[in-house]
Predict the 3D structure of the following.
Amino acid sequence: MIRLLNAKTCQLPDNDEKKAQQKQPYVIISHVWGDREIVFEDMPRFKQLSTSSKRVSGAKIAGACEVVLRHYHGAIQYLWLDTVCIDKRDLTELSMSINSMYKWYRQAEACFVYLQDFLPRDDEDEEHAGGFTRSRWFTRGWTLQELIAPRQVIFFDRNWRVIGDKASLQQELSARTKIMGVFLLGTRNISKASVAQRMSWFSGRETTVEEDAAYCLLGIYGVNMPLLYGEGRERAFRRLQEEIMRYSDDHSIFAWTSHAPLKDGSGFLAGSPDYFTSTGMYEHQPDVRTSEPFEMTNKGISIRVFLQQQGSYHVASLDCPLGDSHHVGLYLECRSMATQQYRRVRTDEMCRVRNTGRGEPKRIFIKPPDDI
């Protein structure tokens, strides 16, 4: 159940008011966290903190309330701001909120993006030259879904002056984020983008909490999973990929490259979303000969792929075309011929496999070396 801030009073609701809010239109406020933010438990002392130790955060909240009321001439009186609308001390509420955020953004009347570090100079039309895209907002992990999910996104500078909306700024936004306009503007559902394409959108983004690099992508893939803070970035990201695999047969989830060769090789799952930096053009094109489901088993990922031997390696050809004549290929090393278990090697590179020489379709199992 979403909790909304009353823009007229700058106050949060009690339990009865919270229930009544569920049918009210609202605006999402997207921003970058500062060092001294007013949070949920501070709200009873909002007026006091706004004029003392947390005045910058207080001014941001008050400005958001004012601009929502002004923009809609009082017709919309509620907003959602992550700093104050989630009680992060309650882990159950935090988990529910993170798993619901994408839906909340989709249902919002609009998302107002506050670029606190951007103020265009008076002597040039800098916003339309793409200057606003240098804001830190474009480097944060959580802001990705705040850009994609809402139907309308309006950008504001430090003084809450309108820069433009997602439609009018589409070219600058696509150039900065590498997200195609059809997905950015919602004319094509992002489910039509391959797993690798969507993962590439995270490139260059960071999260303060390491596990959030996985959790902030839940809505992008339409999946849900429990939050286990303390599990670490790599384990959280592995769980995300396993959850995606439950609903998708897209081979592009395996089309990643590490920044350097992993010393002992790896399994088929990436250790970080950063491994998908260069996968923005990879699509999934199923082949009837290898389109059987793949899944996690106690022998590793079970998958049917085209396989051929090249010297001391095997090459697995994924159902991801590269132009009209090639497919993505991954280097594998056979660890056990009897059990058909392999590991991925030369993880910092992929190869191009000709359509006419992909090898024979074969079911194999891919496990990380430590698990074999």
About this structure: Residues 21 and 28 are 14 Å apart (CA to CA). The two ends are 44 Å apart (CA to CA). The mean pLDDT is 93. The first helix runs from residue 15 to 21.
